[in-house]
Amino acid sequence: MLTGKQKRFLRSKAHHLNPIFQVGKTGVNENMIQQINDVLEKRELIKVSILQNNFDDKNEVARELAEGTDAHVVQVIGNVIVLYKESTEHKQIVLP
């Protein structure tokens, strides 16, 4: 689990990022989870936006993505989810 201090730090790092993935009306699927996992390995911190045609609970979508990729949900704000996963080969972010 991430501490409050670590989440604040990651939120500040994610502020300038643009969402890379979009969850549409079909919801979360295996292909999407695999792609997000690959990008998390390279970037460690990403944003995922939930489109308006997706009627799933956004916290549930965040939980599904986090469980599928073994990542941490840093924040769910509006229709945007911020995910963090420590990279094994491309470590860039040092948590406080």
Brief characterization of the structure:
With 96 residues, the protein is of the alpha+beta class. The chain contains three helices and four strands; from the N terminus they run H-E-H-E-H-E-E. The two termini are 14 Å apart.
What does this structure look like?
By secondary structure, the protein is α+β, with helices and mostly antiparallel strands. The protein has a single domain (4-84), classed as Translation Initiation Factor IF3 (2-Layer Sandwich), CATH 3.30.110. The protein is built from 3 helices and 4 strands. The longest helix is centred in the middle third of the chain and has 14 residues, at 30-43. The protein is globular, with a radius of gyration of 13 Å.
**Rg over C-alpha atoms, rounded to the nearest angstrom:** 13 Å
Biggest sheet details: 4 strands, mixed
The end-to-end distance, rounded to whole angstroms, is 14 Å
How many beta-strand runs?
A: 4
User: What structural class do helix, strand and pairing data support?
Assistant: alpha+beta
Mean pLDDT: 94
Instruction: Count up the helices.
Output: 3
Main-sheet strand order equals 1-2-4-3
> What is the second-level CATH architecture?
2-Layer Sandwich
SSE ordering: HEHEHEE
Are there runs of 5+ residues with pLDDT below 50, and where?
Answer: none
As a percent range, the share of helical residues equals 25-40%
* Overall number of domains: 1
Assess the beta-strand content as a share of residues.
15-25%
- The CATH homologous superfamily name equals YhbY-like
CATH topological fold name = Translation Initiation Factor IF3
